[in-house]
Amino acid sequence: MASTKEIKNRICSVKNTQKITNAMYLIASTKMRKAKEDLTRTRPYFCALQGEIKRIFRTAGDVESKYFYPADGTKILDGTYGCLVITADKGLAGAYNHNVLVEAQKLYNDHPDMKLFVVGEYGRQFFSKHHIPIEKSFLYTAQNPTMQRAREIAEILLRLFDSRKLEKIFIIYTDLESGMKAEAKSARLLPFHRKQFSSSVGERAVLTPFDFQPSIQSVLDNVMHSYISGYIYSALIDSFCSEQTARMTAMDSANQNAQKILDELSVQYHLVRQAAITQEITEVSSGAKAQKKKKIKEVEL
Questions:
Q1: Which of 50, 204, 250, 283 maximizes the CB count within 10 A of its CB?
Q2: In terms of domains, do 9 and 150 share one?
């Protein structure tokens, strides 16, 4: 059995670890709250863009765009796929990174010629370790998603899509659905289905025709560039919030496990200490009895 000194050192070590995990929990909570505020401030703009795209289709339902499937949905896309994979820069976030990479692995197995575009150091190391080529690795950190970075990613992807080097583009990220629930999600970024921008039942029909300059197709393509940038920015923010949520959950579990270990060590410490005290009392009592017997013998002699 370990000595009281060894147990006290173990308790001290666990307490120090618990301080670190608790600090990481608080930091993750603060980062997640700030990221949600940033997304809330920018979301109305992109919701308005989506409304304008709907209005264009309500005005001219037969408009053609390279960013949409044809109205009859007969277009077959057999070319090279592209995939934007959003991971974290580090671990200690439960199954967050694992779930994203599992989705990416599934898509890559179905399309081995797929070109990968990776955000996050964890994803870069994973694909390098498994000798999976990366078309473009965005080296800036995943810890600080900004609109400017989303535009840079969108510009690269759109350039390849416009030149027909990529027929389809997917994005794999973690969607923070509601509250504390997050799920790894694979979504097609381009081309869009028209039904994604179909008018709701309650929306008013366009009675007065609009004048689009230089053309309705040019206006739609220009709006789609901004909308795709916003979509990527939203995915970056969602992934970042999901990472912090997963890290909060992992650190909370670590805190609970640490407390459980501390309780067990405390009981063990008191048992060992009590045993040591009992042994000391027994030794003192035995010594006193021996001395008493010795004095009795001396008197008798």
A1: 250
A2: no
